[in-house]
Every structure is written in structure tokens, then in C-alpha cells.
Amino acid sequence: MIRPLTGLRVLVGRAPHQASALSSGLRVLGAEVLEIPFIEIRKPRSYKALDAALNHIRAYDWLILTSVNGVDAVWQRLKTLRIDKQALQHLKVAAIGPATRTAIEEQGMKVAVVPRHYVAESVVESLRHLVEGKRVLLSRARVARDVIPRELRKLGAEVDVVEAYETAIPQSSCVRIRELLKNESQRPNMITFTSSSTVRNFVALVGQKLCGRGRPHHTDSFSGIQFASIGPVTSSTLRELGLSVDIEAREYTIPGLIKAIAAAHPRKRG
Description:
This protein is an alpha/beta fold. Helix content is 37%, strand content 17%.
């Protein structure tokens, strides 16, 4: 029996420690998966703001976490600061999606809110009637959309935003991606994007400025390649940067993205 994605070559650009779920899911369906990271997760330049917030965690009513990376960073700092998890038991916790919720629950915390759609706007909607007059701690990446803090403040919440980690462009991926796109026998049929950061970093990696010598890639360099997006925010960034959105997940998760790719029945190549 031929699996639905047999003959499809897919480039996965997630950070190495996060690529396995997407890659393995695609391989199960028969795809040939190539992994070149478009994004690298790094420690923040300073833990000062995060540590100060965690040392005063009893003053907060809500903790909002928008990624598994954020969960990992917060609990690592709690361990480093020797703050017992009992200090967090009063908190109500919001997670942006099921993977983040699972990571929080693995730390022994209950999650009060997971929005219907796994984007910042839906987080705000889920908290609309819950945060007035409350103190909210939002732990996230150094560079992120400001939808959550801006809109929650409009609803009467006092919001502190702290940097838990930062994302960077892996310089070592530059030559690998350029060589892959030029190699007709290895060139991917599809490239997956799981966040706006992966889109922006990919464009930087194939561009002239970051990589130095060589001609920059333009949209015609991607002829015959489909772009698969995890959701509308990522899709918006693709279009903003002049790239197509051929597939968009209906559920904004890794399983949702795999399902969307499988359902699209893309043109296969041998």
C-alpha cells in the first residue's frame, strides 16, 4: 500500500530539539524529510527581569505561557532560584495551545485556560472577562507580537512581560539551504513553517545580506516548491514577504499541520 506522502520531499526548519514530532509524523505518511533548522533557541541576554518576576511570583494572579520553550525556561529558572512549586499554586495559568499545556502539566501545574484557536488573539478573547484588576505575568521570547499585553491592558489588567529566551538565525544553515535549493536531485517539493520567526529567518537565510557572496534568492527560485503553514499568523508573514501559502493547517498545531499536508494530496515527485 502506497502511503499518502510517498514521493514527497519535505524540508522541516524547526529547531533541532523540536523537529522530531513534525519529521516523524511526515515520515510515517511516506514523506522523505530533510531537516535544516531555520531557528535556534538561545538563553536570553539577561535573566534579570525573569528572575525578579519569579522571586515575586506570589504577587501575580495569572501566568501566561506561549510556547514549550517558555515553559522550559521558566521552570529551569525556578529550579535555579530554588523557588518551590508551592509558591505557584495560587496562580491561574493560561497556555496558548495543547503542547504548551502538556509541558505545564508535566511540571505539576494545572492549566486554567487554553484558547479555542492557538494564537495570541484567541488568548486575549479567552481571558476577556477574567483579568480586570489582576496582575498578569507573560513569559515569552525576546521578540514577539505585542497583541497579548496590549489588549489585556485595555481590559484592565496589569501586565508584566519578561524575556525567557530568544530566537536566532542559525548561521550554519545558510550554505546548506542554498546548496539544497540548487540541487535538482535533492530539492524539496515542500517547505514547512511553524511560526512567523521561521518564515523571516528562512528568507534571511536564502538572501544575500546574511549569507554574503552569491546571488540572492527571489520568489522564482522556489518554483515547484509548496509552502505549508501552521496557521494564519504564519501565513500572513509568508504573504508579507512575497511567498505563497499553498497549505494552511486548520488546527494550529504540529498534528494539525501534518493532517493538512496529508489532506492536500500535493503533486508527488519520484
